[in-house]
Amino acid sequence: MTVTPPQSLSARIATSAFTILGAALISSAFAAVYWLAIASDRYVSEAHIIIQRTDLAGGQSMDFSSLLGMANNGGRADQLLLRDYLLSVDMLKKLDAALQLRAHFSDSQHDPISRMWQSDTSMERFHRHYLSRVNIEFDEYAGVLQVKAQAYDPNTAQAIVRILVEEGERFMNDVARKLALEQVTFLETQVAQMHDRAMRARQAVLSYQNKKGLVSPQATAENIAGIIAKLEAQRTERETQRSALQSYLVADHPNIIQINQQVVAIEKQIAQEEAKLVSPNGKTLNRTIEEFQRLEMEAGFTQDVYKTALIALEKGRVEAIRTLKKVSLLQSPTLPEYALEPRRFYNTLVFTLVALILAGIVHLLMAIVRDHKD
Question: What phi and psi, each to the nearest 5 degrees, are found at residue 120?
């Protein structure tokens, strides 16, 4: 009986190395056949766009920096908002309705790896495939949105990019208009409220004037103060005359008695006039003036607020008309003449290198394991 000697460690390592290398070469050969002969051509259309606003704030100074900023005053936020919309499911539905993308991406004439397998696949899978065929990049430095779309024929690729640009402009304008209309609606509500408030304040002033029977308590108080000043002047004049007469007439002389009576009458009149202005009882003209001034101040304040609201409303209406966001084309959607995808030789080379690297790693791991076992 002949006993076969066991293989040496080096022989086993060599055998496994040839096996792993053979598997890597075979898989690379299959990949090369796919990329070079089977993979369907995919044409890439591209467009470069920026977002420009047509509105310009009235208080904005027209200096050199502002003129430079007008070239890209759409802003990073607008660009990213547009990018998110163009990659959304809603955008995909519109593209599918216009171009029948499901049928195009799942056409059985194309290779089974790059296409969708079923035209009635779920929206989630359809959207995932759409994201693999549409690429939108935002250039932070230039502020430009680069839109690229792949399709199995040049016209479809160009149509996808053209619809993306058109729908993007419509979407941005709709967003701007809705926001402007909401602002105008809010301002109109505020103006209506301020108008009612101003009317109530003016009506309160009129009602108070009718209640007190005074058009202007302040003017009435000034008139009373003028009367008191005249009466005090008359009293001073009478007291001067009395002092002069007392220097050579007796105290009960008729002239002195007459002047005393006039002074008493003037003082009584002064007390009556002063009582109209101030009194411990509270129902006096000074309190009327204070209440009237408070009502008049509130009416003036509400009137000023109403004027401000009217100005804001008119400005908001003008801005609502002027606020448009135009998607400007720096490069219109191209009509590709050569299939840029797939990159056949590049993909084949990369796949082969990766396969060989993985084979080397696996072989090294197996050698380490065997060495520890032995």
Answer: -100, 30
The residues, any chain, with a CB within 8 Å of residue 245's CB and separated by 6 or more, are: 253, 255, 256, 259
Where are the domains positioned within the chain? 8-39+343-374, 185-320
Q: What is the pLDDT of residues 262-289, one digit of tens each?
A: 777 777 777 776 666 555 554 556 666 6
3-state helix, strand, coil in the chain (%, to 5): 70, 10, 20
Helices (H), 34-59: none
Torsion on CA atoms 231, 233, 234, 240, rounded to nearest 10: 150
**Class of the CATH-defined domain 185-320:** mainly alpha
> 217-242: string of b/e by CB count within 10 Å (b at 16+)?
beebbeeeeeebeebeebbeebeebb
> Scanning the structure block, which residue is given the tokens 């250039």?
139
Give the 3-state secondary structure of residue 176. Answer: helix
Q: Is 7 helix (H, G, I), strand (E, B) or coil?
A: coil
Model confidence, pTM: 0.61
Tokens linked to 53: 């606003």
Q: Quote the pLDDT of residue 217.
A: 62
Distance, in Å, from the CA atom of 267 to the CA atom of 350, rounded to the nearest integer, reads 117
- Residue 325 CB neighbours (<10 A): 25
Residue 77 in tokens:
């936020």
